[in-house]
Amino acid sequence: MIEVRDLTFFYKKRKLILDNITCSLQSGRIYGLLGKNGVGKTTLLHLMAGLKFPKLGNVQVSFSNSEEVDNLLIPQRRKVNFLRDVFFLNEQMPDSDFTIEQLEKHTSVFYPHFSTSDFDTYLQEFEIVDKKQKLSKLSFGTKKKVYIAFGLACNTRLIFLDEPTNGLDIPSKSSFRKILIKAMTDDKTIVVSTHQARDLQNVLDNIIILDNNQVLLNVSAEKITEKLWFGIEENANYTDKILYQEDNVAGLAVVRQNKGGEESNLDVEMFFNASFLNKNLFKELFS
Predict the structure, then answer these.
(1) Fewer CB atoms near the end CB (10 Å): N or C, the chain?
(2) Cβ(56)–Cβ(72) under 8 Å?
(3) In the chain, which residues have pLDDT < 50?
(4) Which residues pair with 33 in a beta bridge?
């Protein structure tokens, strides 16, 4: 579990990045971290991973089923028992002259639960078979796939992925979703920051939306489809109740309140857009 309490961060005092935010992230769930450009998504990931330090407030991590006597960890203290259980994938990956094989050999030693079998399985899913390839010779997308496969094979209990689908083609995005689900276990918390909301369709358990230095929403996918209905609108009687709409090839795609308990599939991108048009209503619905 990750507990963010009264967290404030800034580079210059007059320009807040995050302002007194509080939220909780549970184990066994995949979180999508969404927000407009420059809203602080990457900064929040850095703070939770111990790569940046809060100006005010704090981040605390506790692992379920931990054998540690002191189960409460503070990321900014960067102790070994925290660092060995967190993997962070930056949007821009590090330059390296390592081969894939050397990356595995020299870097996996820092992660006690690293699985070579998992690494090989994830690489195969991405159609990467030659581990003697140099990372520096790979395309951006192929290198991204290697680091995703490596990060998930580390089997850390905290996994932070910043724009992981950038540079991936359509088949690779599908493979990424399969791998992410395969890698997920009850003791892991995975947080994925992305602008490409539809790339994570059907894999997110929770959605966190940042807006104006604050957490606008932190809500489960189940709760969203309980309170909202997503689909193609065919009933003119509902037109005054539409919260968001857009044209597509099938007709008028809409989001409206689900007062009749109807089933529908969450559309992450439409939910994101609807949240900015209905901030007060959504805060009330999902409080």
Answers:
(1) C
(2) no
(3) 69
(4) 193, 208
